[in-house]
Amino acid sequence: MNHSTTTPTKSEQARLDAIHAMPCLCCEIEGVSQPSRTEAHHLCDRGSRKLSGGHASTIPLCGFHHRGEPLPGLSADDMLFDYGPSLALHKRTFVVTYGDERALLERVNARLLRLEQT
Q1: Are 64 and 83 in contact (CB under 8 A)?
Q2: What is the pLDDT of residue 116?
Q3: Distance in Å from the first CA to the final CA of the chain
Q4: What is the pLDDT of residue 6?
Q5: Whose C-alpha in 20, 56, 62, 73 is 20 to 30 A from the C-alpha of 116?
Q6: Where are the domains of the chain?
């Protein structure tokens, strides 16, 4: 998988800033307190961010839902029970629970559009 990064354009950086300011989609769906800061998850199709839309194809996820990073003192299983599935650790269950990444991207894009219009 190609995880190389490119320097974001001004508009891409504005999107990334907006993504980082949003709550984790999964924590919001679960109705739980977000365990860590919001990160921008880049969708990756066919092993490349570039083919997926780069910085324009990002969704807000906390460290656990994004990378499977548990809180100190908790196991991944504890986190799964308390917070729901992680994209990194439980991809199939994540998709069944929250929808596929493209559906989540559509949801985020609609939210960003509403924010731009206010």
Answers
A1: yes
A2: 84
A3: 38
A4: 74
A5: 62
A6: 11-113
Instruction: Give this prediction's pTM.
Output: 0.87
CA-nearest of 94, 92, 78 to 26 is 94
pLDDT at 61: 98
Looking at the domain covering 11-113, what would its CATH class be?
Answer: alpha beta
Residues 111, 113, 117, 118, Cα dihedral to 10°: 20
User: Half-sphere exposure (CA, 13 Å, Cβ side) for 25?
Assistant: 27
Q: Residue with structure tokens 């729901």?
A: 84
Segment 5-18 shows an average pLDDT of 87
Residue 1 has pLDDT above 60, yes or no: no
62, β-bridge pairs: 38
CB hemisphere CA count around 57 (13 angstroms): 14
Q: Tell me the pLDDT band of 44, cut-offs 50, 70 and 90.
A: confident
Amino acid 14 reads: A
